[in-house]
Amino acid sequence: MSFSTFIGLFAGVAIIIAAMAIGSSIWIFVNIPGLMIVIGGTLAATMIRYSFHEAMFAVKMSFQVVLPSPDIKDKNELLDLTEDLLRTSRMKGMLALEDMEVPHEFYQRGVRMMVDGYSKELVLQNLREENQLFSERAETSAGVFGSIGAAAPAFGMIGTLVGLIQMLSDLSDPSTIGPAMAVAMLTTLYGAMIANLFALPMADKITVWGEEESLRQQMIMEGLTAIMDGQNPNIMRDLLAPFLEPGQKAKPDDV
Predict the structure, then answer these.
(1) Domain boundaries, the chain
(2) Model pTM?
(3) Rounded to whole angstroms, how far apart are CA atoms 17 and 233?
């Protein structure tokens, strides 16, 4: 799991639970009807906005974001890998790339197409379309979690209103007003927690991850272009340098 995600989620849940437990029982914060209203209503509203397939793909992408991946993440490593592939293809030909390890799924597909004899135009067209589709799916997935983040507090308020109406319908016993009000407020708490501790942070994380991965894919496409053109490795590094962060750019004596 992403270290920052794990720390943030663990710390957030721990702090809230600790605050709940101080001075009272944690069980007073558990209300099944309130959870049904918030979770059920939020899921229903999200399914109205998005198709079932889009919602399931968003869940799948959320796991891709937080779980470890074997794909190369560091752009300097991608640059070094591109240089290795370029030097090998210049010395031994494209078929020699088939035996090289390429630890990035998108990069692997591009190398496989080159080895199979696809033209440069066809390789780049295929990868550009895949990159565009990936960006659109990441945007949609972030939208799904953004929708959850928007709907959860609204249904929390709906649950609170339902509880207040039920409470105000029978005021014959004043001693029950306080506990009933507390239960009515729980749905607002549930909605706020779901939105701000899970859904909205996940939407932002998918957005950032999608942008970074799309940039890596664009860098890979430029690297594949250099390989297919048989560029000089030093020229290739200069061409890919803009994709690196300012502090990551290779020094002249490193190339």
Answers:
(1) 31-254
(2) 0.85
(3) 55
